[in-house]
Each structure stands twice: as structure tokens, then as C-alpha cells.
Amino acid sequence: MGADEPAWEGLSPEALQAERSTGPFVSFLADETTLTSAEHPVLAVWVFSADDGRDHRPFRVVPTALWSVENNINLANMDWPEFTSSVGADGVFRGF
Length: 96
Prior knowledge:
The protein has helices at 13-19, 32-36, 63-74, 80-84; strands spanning 26-29, 42-46, 59-61, 92-93. By secondary structure, the chain is α+β, with helices and mostly antiparallel strands. It is globular, with a radius of gyration of 13 Å.
């Protein structure tokens, strides 16, 4: 199923994690908040089961910083907690 399929509409981060077993470590969801907020923050979701005790909660990222999350996570340059600990008080990552 492609990323632009109607079946993905309304998909929660938990449902996305349940659907994925291969592919990149991070996926990005554009939801109502993304489409209605002035900064259009996209929801970044760690898609694989993480039983390592680290923080893999979803967070929002502004489009101009999305490349940093995607590149660094999927190339294993940085860990998810480096991003989750760098979000603003509103839960949005805007870069380092």
C-alpha cells in the first residue's frame, strides 16, 4: 500500500507501528494538526517495536527540519531520544 492511499487516512501512530515490519525506522504522518497549524508540524513516528527502554514517543517536526530527523535516524547517525529531548515546550522539533 502506497503512502498516499486513502486507507492510511486517520491512521494513528500505534496503528502505523502495527502495520510496519520492514523499511525505514521513521515515518511521517500529516494529520489535522499538520494541515491547520501555522508551522505545519508533521508527526514523526518510530515505526518498529522498541523494547530497549528508550523514549520512542512520537513528536512533531517542522517541515524545514524534517530532513534532519529522516537522514539521521535512518542512517543511524543519531538516536530517537536525541530528537525527543530536543523538542520545544510544545513538543515540536525545530532543529538543533
